[in-house]
Amino acid sequence: MKMLNLLWTLMVLTVALTITYGYPSGAPPQACGTMTPGHHVEAQTSPAPYSTNISQTSYKGGDTITVTLTQTGKNNFVGFMIEARRADFREKQDEIIGFFTPVNGTRLACNGTLGNALTHSEQAPHGPLTVIWTAPAKAQGHLVFKVTYLQDFSTFWIDTESPVLYDPTAPPLEEPTTPHGTQPPWSNFNTTSCGTTKGCYSVPQGCSPTNSDCQYFVSWRENNKDVDFELYAKDGEYVAVGFSHDIMMPDTSVVACSMNKGFVEVSNYYNKEYSSGQLYPGAKVGLNNTEGYWTGNDISCRFSRAKIITTDQFKNTPSQSIFNLTQSYYLLVAKGQSTHGEIMMHSVKRGEFPVVTPDKVDFSKYDLMSGRAVYPLVKLHGCFMLVAWMLTATCGMLIARYFKLHWGSSTLGGKNIWFQVHRTCMLLTLLLVIAGVVVIFVYVKGFAEWHNDTLLDLHPILGLIVTGLVLLNPTIALFRPSPTAEKRPIFNWVHWGIGNLALVAAMVQIYTGVAMPGAFVGWNATWLFIGWLIFYVTVLLVLEFYERCVLARKVTDEDTELLDGIDKKPGVVSDDSHLDNTSRAKSAPLFKTILLGVYLAGTIVMTVLIVIIVALSPL
């Protein structure tokens, strides 16, 4: 039962490590772009009970502006973050403009070339708060002050804005002109013509945007010098289609339809690595006949994209960032939240993860695409880890814990059989873990980026911890004291503790890995793993009960002295072949042997089943 208590404690600690706390000393660096607290709760959608006022309506380079943050309701705000951004959707709106001067209870954040942000330095009620902002030496166009107001940990408003601060030297401010539409464009998306007069790709396969289960829909049709596209996504503020030379996100030309002040805006983006940035000034290059609609849940759009982009269309935008559609590409389709037209990180929820066509799309053909691209290295990584921890690790640890004494007199190659089996199993575990880590590092090309998602972010961190423990334990074993050494019990407990800590962490890893949306593995694998885990714990309990309660009654006083002298500790790993265990059977009792056989058979079958599901299932 001590082992079970330890397992439970470790599980609780692991879960506790995933909790994200608030930031009483202000917004963290990762909030600079989205201005969203990392509280893992949704922002309020009702009008904010706070307002942001400015001391003048226009500015020139170097001007000082007084900005006042105040409440319009009964509750003060306890935290805030304020940035000045460009107001014109035609300009780069994700740049922070101008410099704040900190006052009591505030601190600077998000330092950049053209400006910085201001946030609270302590979490306390604020009444009206007046701050000073200084414009850059050169005016940067029409601006607005964007503020996130925090009322308490779970109640906050983002995207609140001040009145526009006008730049007299800039062109007149325009709102997005993409038609909102009187009815959703997907209401007349003609899916019956898919495969005949236009190409289509949908998830689930063959679904229509009018169906409630349709997550994504993309269609394309060559139209002289353009390609006409239709996009749809369920539960998103933007839908984006990427044109990629492979099935990976880096080096991808993207067109995104996103919400911006009640309009759907169609813009060019480019994924240099694993993040997407809107192209300036080429955000609208090659895009015509744009139309979009957002219901409050689902988003759709139509647009024409020029097949060939000429160099003179780009001005200061690198021409290689907008791909010509005369070539074939994989289509990457994603959705997520947007902030004033700027797309945020795509959704990572199960069933909403970005999808990729299984083959390249030729836009001159009307192919009917189905299925998803498969990531073989990800699946190979998962298969290696499943075999390592479900099969080889648990079998090696069971034999060391419960069969050491009963196989003590049997040898193989001059060593006890139990020790040889244990060492072989753990060596296989080590090799499989190393292979799995190498494979996933090759796939990611380094360490995974931070996604601000507990499941995705926990997996690589915990994976490195498990790998470190797996490497540490055999290293310690190389320096183990002799069986009769005074410090041998210390080694026994350390070796046992590291092994079980690695095993518990690995079980969490397998659960999170199988459940990760990017693995595209169905819930059947998750439930099968949970079933196996219950089976494994049951076998542990039965063996522990049999060892402590049944066999203990058969031990004589002489046996007790003998057992006290051989360090019979949980998980002892040594080759104490000199010990004489004649007082017990020289072979394992029949019951334990049968139970071991049942466990091996059951674990092999369930491991093979999960491996098959992971390897073959793209959904």
TrEMBL record:
The keyword Amino-acid biosynthesis does not apply. It holds the Pfam family Reeler. One of its GO terms (biological process) is defense response to bacterium. InterPro entries: Cyt_b561/ferric_Rdtase_TM, DOMON_domain, Ferric-chelate_Red/DefProt, Reeler_dom, Reeler_sf. The keyword Transmembrane helix applies. Belongs to the insect defense protein family. This is Uncharacterized protein.
